[in-house]
Design a protein that fits this description.
Nucleotidyltransferase, domain 5, 3 domains, alpha+beta, five-stranded mixed β-sheet, Arc Repressor Mutant, subunit A, disordered C terminus, globular, 18 strands
């Protein structure tokens, strides 16, 4: 829990500290408890809470008797106080969500697309999807504070551009942030998709603040959180793990004998292997919906005990575990979170296999127990994370805001 300050010039920071304390108290919290948890004086806490109520960010929901004196009034987050849009630009599907102030999904939609779709068409599709989600939700658009975009890397955070993403054929340097801000008429933030997934998990408040998020989508990557801070790297592009060398799912690479993790478990490659094994009918063109249905079919066959399907799942688990051992050793995390659209169909099967493979690895050097869990926020974790990014940016306490800039002196 962050501490506040009674210095009069930093009311904005104190508002964020108190709002964060109330948000992390799901059953409510009194003003006295707010002061205790934030280190603020009772008077400061009371004054700030009044302003938060006036701003429509918190509300009083009842009273509780705690010893002698007047009953204490309970404060809770006002879920409909503000909203944020989250957009995930996956190479094969666009996902748009609308989140309330608590981080709950109010409305969402998905639009299948292709890797060759033109940039202008993508911007049009996103703008239309956002309009549809807002209309379907019946939310007051004036309460939407902005939109976050999660996109495959590399990204340029300074210009808000996506730069030659390997799985989007027609994209070069695309100023996504500027283009969408103009179309949506609201502030827009851009984040790498795996980082956005880590932001979502961190915002949900279910972890100890030290974890890696293994994202299994059209490509693979990891989001990283250490000491409650999501790690972005010097250019905002941390988390690229597709080039880690792994066994390759039992298939020998014709040149190196090894495969890169991104190639080995890329959904389109897994589906191609499944067809080669006779598990799936051949002929359908690869795409998000087709590949997702194929993963669901593989999971059903493996669950029914089909040996070739079980062997394929074992190979995927081997490759993910081998890659994660290196990541866990490097970062010394005690928690691995899994998510993404292509994780979901195989989640039960992979969670039965991956933890033991990692724990039994002769290359794992850490002495502590590691937990393995699924994402708290569900399948649309990158889009949800993009929206959480907006909420976090606007409403979370940031110590750097307390610094006095040279221009202010």
């Amino acid at each position: 829990m962050r501490s506040g300050t009674n210095f009069p010039a930093v009311g904005g920071y104190n508002k964020a500290v108190i709002l964060d304390a109330i948000r992390r108290a799901p059953t409510g919290i009194s003003r006295v408890e707010v002061a205790e948890r934030t280190g603020l004086s009772a008077q400061t806490a009371t004054n700030v809470c009044r302003r938060l109520i006036a701003d429509g960010l918190i509300c009083e929901t009842g009273t509780v008797i705690a010893g002698p004196g007047k009953p204490r009034r309970i404060l809770e987050l006002r879920r409909d106080g503000r909203y944020a849009i989250g957009i995930h630009l996956d190479p094969s599907v666009i996902t748009v969500v609308l989140l309330d102030l608590s981080g709950a999904v109010v409305a969402h939609t998905t639009i299948p697309t292709t890797v060759s779709v033109e940039v202008d068409n993508v911007i049009d599709l996103v703008a239309t999807a956002v309009e549809r989600v807002v209309a379907d939700s019946a939310v007051d658009a004036a309460r939407i504070i902005g939109a976050g975009v999660a996109a495959p890397g590399p990204i340029d955070t300074a210009s808000g551009s996506v730069i030659n993403p390997p799985l989007l054929e027609s994209w070069g340097r695309v100023p996504v942030r500027e283009a969408l801000a103009g179309r949506l008429a609201m502030p827009v933030l851009l984040e790498k998709d795996v980082t956005a997934a880590a932001v979502a998990e961190n915002w949900a408040g279910e972890s100890d603040g030290n974890f890696v998020f293994f994202y299994y989508g059209t490509g693979v990557g990891v989001g990283i959180a250490l000491q409650n801070e999501v790690i972005r790297g010097s250019s905002g592009n941390s988390g690229e793990v597709g080039s880690l060398l792994v066994g390759g799912g039992g298939v020998t690479h014709p040149v190196t004998g090894r495969w890169r993790l991104g190639e080995a478990i890329m959904p389109s490659n897994v589906v191609r292997r499944a067809r080669g094994l006779g598990l799936l009918a051949s002929g359908e063109e690869s795409g998000h919906e087709t590949d997702l249905a194929a993963f669901q079919a593989i999971a059903s066959l493996a669950g029914a005990g089909e040996e070739a399907a079980l062997s394929l799942v074992d190979d995927i688990a081997d490759d993910i575990a081998e890659g994660l051992v290196s990541i866990i050793d490097l970062l010394d995390v005690g928690r691995v979170v899994f998510g993404g659209p292509f994780w979901s169909p195989l989640s039960a099967l992979l969670l039965e296999r991956i933890p033991a493979r990692i724990s039994d690895s002769r290359y794992l050097v850490l002495p502590h127990v590691i937990s393995f869990v699924e994402a708290t926020v569900g399948q649309d974790v990158a889009a949800t994370g993009a929206a959480c990014l907006v909420l976090d940016h606007a409403l979370s306490p940031r110590p750097q805001t307390l610094l006095i800039s040279h221009s202010a002196t």
